[in-house]
Amino acid sequence: MRIALTGTPGTGKTTVSGLLPFRVVNLNDLIRDGMSAGFDPERECLEADMDALEEKIEEIERSCGDDVLIIEGHFAHHFADEAIVLRLHPNVLRRRLEARGYSASKIRENVEAEAIDLILVEALELCSRVHEIDTTDLSPEEVASIITAILKREIEMPPGGIDWLGDPEIDLG
Ligand SMILES: Nc1ncnc2c1ncn2[C@@H]1O[C@H](COP(=O)(O)OP(=O)(O)O)[C@@H](O)[C@H]1O
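Structure for Putative adenylate kinase, as requested:
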């Protein structure tokens, strides 16, 4: 069973994926391993080769049988019918991306994307089942427990409860 773990860069996907009791495939690792279509200077990153990634994921999926396979990355929702979207208050996200050394334009692009629910909206368009977690006040371990409970079908985290733009304290730069 393929599950996308998605969200704006900096929301904590890679950190939490290391704490999950499931097999995880990191899309950025696959792109660095050669499933890239070259460097995209505008977005300051390697462009994904979507067909090569799909082929590789199918190969890994076959070896997983019926077990959960987590596809992790900010466009993972393109590769699964069920997605878990990690959310983070834009002001906290900004501080994390600054600490990462992102350029001012890349920080602004990602903070705005988070503020307007961009990845959530994409996931809702592409996937038939979507879950949403506000990680702002949670530790990585708490987020991992919630994801595990969702995938064991013990709890539900339906999307739609987050409204960052409604917070007067929001800092869009
Ligand atoms: N729940 C959390 N609480 C506090 N810091 C976190 C949490 N999750 C991740 N971080 C930190 O935020 C930064 C970005 O996390 P990362 O997992 O790389 O995000 P992503 O994979 O979504 O880009 C890292 O420095 C990480 O240590």
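Residues 7, 9-15, 96, 135, 138-140, 143 surround adenosine-5'-diphosphate (CB under 6 Å).
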